[in-house]
Each structure stands twice: as structure tokens, then as C-alpha cells.
Amino acid sequence: MNPYLDLLQPYPFQKLRELFAGITPSSEYTAINLSIGEPKHATPAFIKEALIANLDGLASYPLTAGLPTLRLAISNWIARRYDIPAPNPETQILPVNGSREALFAFAQTIVDPCFDQPVVISPNPFYQIYEGAALLAGAQPYYLPTLPENGYRMDFTSVPESVLARTQLIYVCSPGNPTGRVMTLEEWRALFALSDRYGFAIAADECYSEIYFDEAHPPLGAMQAAQQLGRTDYRNLVVFSSLSKRSNVPGMRSGFVAGDAAIIAKFLLYRTYHGSAMSPSVQMASVAAWNDEAHVVENRRLYAEKFAAVQPMLNSVMPAAMPDAAFYLWIRVPHGDDAAFARKLYQDYHVTVLPGSFLARDFADSNPGAGFIRIALVASLAECVDAATRIQQLITHTS
Questions:
Q1: Residues of the domain holding 382
Q2: 358, 67 in Cβ contact below 8 A?
Q3: Can you give the CATH number for the domain in which 221 is found?
Q4: CB–CB of 278/255 below 8 Å?
Q5: Are 128 and 359 contacting, i.e. CB atoms less than 8 angstroms apart?
Q6: DSSP label at 385?
Q7: Is the pTM of this model over 0.90?
């Protein structure tokens, strides 16, 4: 067996099941689950219709590189969304089966197993796929804390030069999971400079890029930042995006990678052997989704409505700042024990949230997620308001 498998830690939701083991929640309340970042808004009808209309695609093997029609739709969407020249759909775009699969596989393409002690840097707290990808590629994860004290940014000036010299890949997430923070142009400038100096690749996870609160000011994207900084070839940069959150189709497993043509060519080679091609039926439904923005605007409206109702309620009993984007609230709990808070909330009020410590790793003798909970506002407006009311009650009764 691959010995690296022994390095993998239980997934956060497995830890959550273990935390709740033996608990029977209060029968006074219905269950409300705000722990998992799974979109619950309805899938637009036109996407389902496009999928059904193209079921004949099931009769043929799909191409790993995807249909030209899909690559063009993605390229045109990037150009519209970020107001930049359209990337070359032949060399700078590759459809993938959701960003999760691609984020994991990317490390297998980038990390050189012959290199002495390669490093993969990720934010901390983080999406656990980054860690698993690094470990199974034979690299050493380096966890860079994102803390309230530094505005939840990745402070690369704190990384020792000896670590940067061994770094082959850096995962960044903007808007971030779990904080919802968006990277600034100056942060991108500094990261690109480090990439030029040390030669590492940048994997920019942008799966939350389309969940934001001001239609006039969408979050800055990595390719947009690169264009503004004169990096028109996207050197060492690959962006990962998905329809799951944007279009409420997590079950379609449809996304893309875009950026540095040389890296994408190698990634395509890897994926050709990996057998990870997207169904032609899903590809055509994806074309329909990328070509439409009206349903995305409505999706944002629904999330904004929930934040407008829930954030003031929670902020009245504990600091609950609005994120820059995404659909999470990242909140420091009273009394500091995030796991105990989540357990008590589940037991007494049948509301499930995720302890922040489950999303992070110990670094410099502390866990940067400890004392926080992540609340995913993915349920209905009524359920989210009901959950916020129950959280208020819990804090009021235990303070």
C-alpha cells in the first residue's frame, strides 16, 4: 500500500460525526445543517433541459481536452467576467470534473518526486484537499496561518527562505474558505514576484468567485490581477473554477482550469492517462450554464438576502463580521472551545455547524481555527433565520 495514505487525517465531516457520536438532539427542534458548503438553491431549469437534450452524448467516449464549444464558452465567460482578453481556448483552458478533483490532481503534475523535500504551501485553515494532494504527491505541507490579526491574509514574508527555496506549489483560495476574504492586487503582485524568484506554481482556487454582495464590484480574480500587472502569459499561474456554487449544480462535477499554457499542456497529459474526461452531456449543459448570467445574479440575491437577515442577528451576541464574498460566516465563539460549542448547539438546538479547528492544523503550537465556527448559509432563508435564533438562545442561556 502507498505509505503516504497513512499521513492523511480524517476529513472534517468525519470528525464532526465522531464529535456528535452518542448524542440525541433535542426533539423540540427540526434539524438544520449549516456545516457543509453544499449549495441548496434549485438548479436552473434551463441547465437540466440542456443536459436532457444532450443525452446522446452518453454514446461516445469524451475527449480529455473537452469539446471546443465548451472551451470557447469558458474562455468567453472569463473575458466577460474579468474584463480581460479571452484566453486561448485551445491552449489555456481545460474542462475538469469539478475543482476538487483538479485541485488534487494538479499536485501530482507539479511536484517533482526526485526533488529533495519538496514543499506545498497552503493557507491555514484550508480546504483539506490541498493537504491530501501535497502528501500523496510526496511533498511536505507548509501551513501558513490566516488570522484575524493579519486580516486573514497569507503573510508570505513570514515563510523562511529555506522553505520558499523548496516550494514547488502554493495553493491560494480567493474568496477564501472559510473566511471569505478576497486577495488584493498588491498581494498578487508580491506572490507573483515570489513565484518568479523561486519558480513555484500557483494554484488559485476560485470556486467561490461568483458569490458576492455588490454587483458593481465583483471580487478580483487571479487572471485579472495577472493582466493588470502585465503578466499576460499567466506565467506559473493556473486558476481553478467551478459551476457548483455559481450555478447550483454540484452533482454535475463541472469546472475548468485556465492559465499558463505550458503547465496546462502537462496537466492535460497527466489527465489523459488519469482517465478524467467530462461526459459530453454534462459538457453541453455546462455550455448553457457558462453562457447565462441571469441565474447567477439571482443566486447572489438569495445569498445576500440570507446574510442581511442572519449576520446582524449573530453579531448581536458574538462578533460576526461580513465576509468579502462566499457564503460562509467565520465566527469566534464565546468561551473559545469551538468543538464544545458545536456539540452543545447540536445537542440542545439541533443545529449543525463546523468547528474551525477541524479545518486547520497546529502551527507554532496553536491551531488558527480553534475558537471559531464556520456557518454555511446554504439552507433556506427561513431555516437560516431559525438557526440564528437558536444560536442566540444558546449564547444567551450559557453566558
A1: 3-42+295-398
A2: no
A3: 3.40.640.10
A4: no
A5: yes
A6: H
A7: yes
- How many structural domains compose the chain? 2
CA 227 to chain centre: 22
Calculated CA dihedral for residues 216, 218, 221, 224, nearest 10 degrees: -10
Residue given cell 511536505 in the structure block: 140
Q: Which residues contact 57 (CB under 8 A, 6 or more apart)?
A: 279, 280, 281, 283, 284
Considering Cα of 149, then 152, then 153, then 155, what sign does the dihedral take? positive
Mean pLDDT of the chain: 97
pLDDT digits (tens, 9 = 90+) for 70-100: 999 999 999 999 999 999 999 999 999 999 9
Instruction: Identify whether residues 27 and 51 lie together within a single domain.
Output: no
Cβ atoms of 25 and 350 closer than 8 Å? yes
Give dist(CA 135, CA 113) in Å, integer: 11
Q: How far is CA 247 from the centre of its chain?
A: 15
Q: Which of 121, 210, 125 is nearest to 171 (CA)?
A: 121
Per DSSP, 212 falls in state B
- Buried b / exposed e over 32-63, threshold 16 CB at 10 Å, is bbbbebebeeebbeebeebbeebeebeeeebe
- 132/361 Cα distance (integer angstroms): 13
276 and 353, same domain (yes or no): no
Report the CATH number that the domain containing residue 375 is assigned in CATH: 3.90.1150.10
Neighbours of 7 (CB within 10 A): 13
